[in-house]
Amino acid sequence: xxxxxxxxxxxxxxxxxxSIPTSIGxxxxxxxxxxxxxxxxxxxxxxxxxxxxxxxxxxxxxxxxGDIPTWIGTSLVELRILILHxxxxxxxxxxxxxxxxxxxxxxxxxxxLSGVIPRCVHNFTAxxxxxxxxxxxxxxxxxxxxxxxxxxxxxxxxxxxxxxxxSKLQYDTIIPLVTTIDISNxxxxxxxxxxxxxLLELKSLNLSRxxxxxLVPDHIGDMKQLESLDLSRNSLCDLxxxxxxxxxxxxxxxxxxxxxxxxxxxxxxxxxxxxxxxTSSV
Length: 282
Prior knowledge:
By secondary structure, this protein is mainly β. It has helices at 71-75, 125-128, 133-139, 239-248; strands spanning 8-10, 17-19, 32-34, 39-42, 56-58, 63-67, 81-83, 88-92, 105-107, 112-114, 160-164, 167-171, 180-182, 189-190, 204-206, 211-215, 228-230, 235-237, 254-258, 270-274. It has an 8-stranded parallel β-sheet with strand order 1-3-5-7-9-13-15-17, with no helix packed on it.
C-alpha cells in the first residue's frame, strides 16, 4: 500500500476473505482500522506492529485465529479501542496487553481464549482514573488534530458498536465517556482478580459464559460508575454479598437481580444494573 498519509481504513461489513494484507503495516500514520464483519482468516499480521499511531483496531466478526499478538500491547500503546470479538482467537490473554494504559474499550468476547484474567488489568489507567474531555482531546492530538473521538472533521466520524446486555449500542459523539470490558463467552478459568475493582471509571463489565470460580472480589461495590455487570454462567459463589454491596452503594439507583433459568451458575445471579446520577445524598 503506497498511501503514506492514509489515516482511516473502513472496509467493514463486506464479503472480503483471505488473510489480512501484511502491507497494512506500511501505513505508519494509520489511526483507525475497521475490517469488521467480513470473512478474513489466518492470524493478525505481525507487520501491523508498525502502525504505532493507531487509536482504534476493529477486527471483530471474522475468522481470525491464533493468539492475540503480544505486540498489540507493546507497540500499539496509543490504542483507545480494541474490538476483536467473534473470531477464533485462542491462547491466553497476555500480560503485555495491560500496557495499553489509554484503552477505553476492550472487547475480546466470543472467542476461544483460555487461562486466567491477568492481574495487571488495573494498568488500564483510562478505566481507572477519570479524565476530562480536554485531556482526551489532547491524547488524540489536540483540538487542531484531524482525528478526535467526538468531532466530525473531513467527512469522518469515529464510532464504536458495543454490545451491552445483548443490546447493540452505537456510540459516536460520546466515545470519550465510554469505558467497557467484555471478555464473555470464552474458556477463562480461575478467580476474578481483585485488581478488576480498581477500574473505578468502568461503565460495563461482562465476564459471563466462562469457567470462573471462587468469590467475587470484596470491593466490587466500589465500582460506582458501573451501569452493566454480567457475571452469569460461571461457577461463582457468595453472590449474596454482591447483591448487598450493590444495594448499599450510594450511586446505584436501580438494581435488578434474577436467577438464570437453568442454573448455569451454581450460586450465581444474572445482574443488570442501571445507574442514574443522584443529586441528593441517600
